[in-house]
Specification:
Layout: H1 3-11, E1 20-28, E2 34-49, E3 52-59, E4 65-68, E5 73-76, H2 81-87, H3 109-123, E6 131-138, E7 141-153, E8 160-165, E9 168-172, E10 177-180, E11 183-184, H4 185-195
Antiparallel strand pairs: 1-2, 1-5, 2-3, 3-4, 6-7, 6-10, 7-8, 8-9, 10-11
Length: 196
């Protein structure tokens, strides 16, 4: 993402804490060489100083903290940053795109996922022992694993899901889920949004 676009989005309150972004970061690979990896993060803190804006990010799968420049972020809430800005009528330079219209608001993908999981949990569609597939970040990179739900913590600050994989407990964010009970998360989410 361009630095000036990041500053505009932060200033207008469209890029803020607890939002989900995809970013590139430096990591050490299996062969102990530095590699550039990509992962999904949650914005923990926005740091503004004379050099501009930087983001303290928390990796969705394991909570690892990374300090990222705006240029490392390539997706905001599942969208290209320029497209995300245009949804809110903003050009890259901060000017308005076309005619401004009154917006009713837009739930973030993360918020939809949490709402869907809360509904499924309340309806008994998912439960302790339900089979899930999730993306878990390891020092070697992200891996896709099958496991089962142990517990879901619906905290106001951050909803987390404890899953058991090969007798080991992992705490993940809802956005790390790939499948729930054999159905793709994106398919379930699309159906949930259509019903809403």
């Amino acid at each position: 993402m361009l630095v000036n676009l990041a500053e505009i989005l932060v200033q207008k309150g469209l890029l803020k804490q607890h939002m989900e972004v995809d970013a590139r970061y430096h990591s050490i690979g299996i062969d102990h060489q530095e590699v550039v990896a990509e992962s999904t993060f949650t914005i923990e803190e926005i740091k503004k100083d004379t050099n501009g804006v930087n983001f303290l990010l928390s990796r969705a799968a394991d909570g690892k903290k990374v300090l990222a420049a705006p240029t490392n972020i390539f997706r905001i809430d599942g969208m290209d940053p320029i497209r995300y800005a245009r949804v809110y009528g903003i050009n890259v330079d901060g000017s308005h795109v076309g005619r401004t219209r009154r917006k009713r608001g837009r739930k973030t993908r993360h918020d939809y996922i949490i709402s869907m999981i809360e509904t499924m949990w309340g309806d008994g569609d998912i439960f302790p022992g339900a089979v899930v597939t999730a993306s878990i970040d390891t020092p070697e990179g992200s891996i896709i694993v099958d496991g089962f739900i142990d517990e879901i913590d619906f905290d106001q600050e951050m909803t987390t899901i404890d899953i058991v994989v090969a007798d080991q407990l992992y705490t993940i964010k809802p956005s790390s889920l790939v499948e729930i009970m054999g159905e793709q998360l994106d398919t379930l989410l699309d159906n949930y949004i259509k019903k809403s």
